[in-house]
């Protein structure tokens, strides 16, 4: 039987226990393993990633020495044999019917290029009361129980899929992969100390602008493991700042940035003003939000 679907898991120095949970969820998928392959992309881990994949007839570990999530994903796309690609992070726990739904959705909807669903939290420590304000930063989302689809309308859709669990028709990735390989631009996710995350957005915009539909489908459900260190406010502040910087860059590249370029000399003054307007001194949540706006100020000056 031919491979219909490819699961791609990019990973860099993974937590062995959490990656084990991700793989365990894949072991119990309702879609027969003969119909899908598993590709783990070892993105320069030290030591190299070693996991038992004997349970799967079409599983492999591929190395990608170029550091960065975008490079790892591109390597996975190029290795994939399936017509459908499912992007899985190394801390995602897919529902047992996830792959089956993914395949059915793209087989039944020929205009659909990419889609996502619910990414629900599995916290490993008690989260702060304000954490929901930053669910988007943590790749968490629940848009309800109604499906939503749409095409390119000159802006970024609020229902656009996030990277965690995104399902993609491989043919819809053709131009995106070409842009990256030609060096035309690179919106790099998670590279070095950067926590930027614009690669997902760049991918979605390329798919939309190529004429494909995208969608949100509530039957696609995964749980995202959030360890204690990712709930620490200084981490979230840095995450929010880098995410805003990536977001502005993506919007600018795609010609849909609504904000004007600012002067580099004005950045410190803008940050000081934002300190007060965002009341960053009041509490941790306000401080995190302020850092996001600081990232925006820096990005607009760098355009």
UniProtKB/TrEMBL annotation:
It comes from Mucilaginibacter yixingensis. SUPFAM superfamilies: Nucleotide-diphospho-sugar transferases. Keywords: Transferase. GO terms for molecular function: transferase activity. Gene3D superfamilies: Spore Coat Polysaccharide Biosynthesis Protein SpsA, Chain A. Residues 6-116 form the Glycosyltransferase 2-like domain. Transmembrane segments: none annotated. This is GT2 family glycosyltransferase.
